Amino acid sequence: MLRIAEAVELTDTGRQREANEDSYFSRAPLFAVADGMGGAQAGEVASRMAVEAFERADESGAAPEELLRRTAQEANREIFDLAQGTRRARGWGRR
């Protein structure tokens, strides 16, 4: 069994970007990083939406692997639906 002794959260803009578009979620037993696709349209919006899905996830009784799979699929569906359903979001994920 894996035991988490310490958790540290840190992101970095890197050398080419001025803004950090990454988001993260850290609440044992689940940890997730959403890469904001620097330079792509609305990368920060999509990464934030992904993390928000993890913040709302119902953790009761689910194995961490199942919770991760289910929540990632839900986040993907929400981001895809928004990107398809609004003009301002068209082209998300493209550079």
Describe the structure.
The mean pLDDT is 80. This protein has a domain of 66 residues. It contains two helices and two strands; from the N terminus they run E-E-H-H. Helix 1 crosses helix 2. With 95 residues, the chain is of the alpha+beta class. Strand 1 and strand 2 form a beta hairpin. The chain has a two-stranded antiparallel ribbon with strand order 1-2.
Describe the largest sheet: 2 strands, antiparallel
Helix and strand composition category? alpha+beta
Strand content: 5-15%
Are there runs of 5+ residues with pLDDT below 50, and where? none
Quickly describe the structure.
38% of the residues lie in helices and 11% in strands. The protein has helices spanning 43-56, 64-85, and strands at 23-27, 30-34.
Essential attributes:
11% strand; two-stranded antiparallel ribbon; alpha+beta; 95 residues
Per-chain topology:
Blueprint: E1 23-27, E2 30-34, H1 43-56, H2 64-85
Antiparallel strand pairs: 1-2
Helix pairs in contact: 1-2
